[in-house]
């Protein structure tokens, strides 16, 4: 039981340390009318990301870009199941090595420059008119 308690305290400490690092190093970048968070942290890149998003408290943050834990490229991830982000739009792009079937995640082959991966993220953002919004609300 003591080991479990020590492990829990260590995990909390690790998450809080990472949260402070995220606050210092993550960039919040515009992607059309929304935002993405961009992180170069490659050691367990998603650690404390939920805490950082809560810290930001910005509903316009709809995706994240971070190093992939499976491969050498970037991972583009839809946040909060936002229907405006669908990475299936990146199908056929040379930079892309994987897109999940429902479009919530895409991965690049390599760590391409920040401006290029943000441009890909922008291409994965849906332009949505009133009809699209009504359709999404009825799902």
Number of strands: 6
N-to-C order of helices and strands: HEEHEEEEHH
Q: How are the strands ordered across the major sheet?
A: 1-2-3-4-6-5
CA-based gyration radius? 17 Å
Report strand %: 15-25%
Number of helices: 4
Determine the structural class based on helices, strands and strand pairing. Answer: alpha+beta
Cα-to-Cα separation, first versus last residue: 46 Å
| Structural shape | globular
What profile does the largest beta sheet have?
A: 6 strands, mixed
Helix content: 25-40%
Q: Can you put this structure into words, describing what you see?
A:
This protein has a single domain, classed as Diaminopimelate Epimerase, Chain A, domain 1 (Roll), CATH 3.10.310. The protein has four helices and six strands; from the N terminus they run αββαββββαα. Strands 1-2-3-4-6-5 form a six-stranded mixed beta sheet, covered by helices on one side. With 139 residues, it is an alpha+beta fold. 26% of the residues are buried. Helix content is 36%, strand content 22%.
């Amino acid at each position: 039981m003591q080991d479990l308690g020590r492990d829990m305290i260590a995990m909390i400490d690790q998450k809080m340390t990472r949260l402070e690092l995220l606050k210092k190093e993550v960039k919040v970048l515009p992607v059309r009318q929304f935002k993405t968070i961009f992180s170069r942290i490659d050691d367990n890149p998603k650690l404390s990301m939920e805490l950082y998003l809560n810290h930001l408290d910005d509903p316009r943050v709809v995706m994240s870009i971070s190093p992939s834990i499976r491969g050498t490229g970037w991972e583009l991830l839809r946040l909060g199941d936002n229907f405006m982000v669908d990475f299936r739009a990146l199908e056929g792009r040379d930079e892309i090595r994987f897109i999940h079937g429902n479009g919530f995640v895409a991965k690049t082959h390599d760590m391409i420059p920040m401006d290029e991966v943000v441009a890909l993220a922008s291409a994965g953002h849906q332009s949505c008119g009133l009809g699209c919004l009504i359709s999404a609300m009825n799902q």
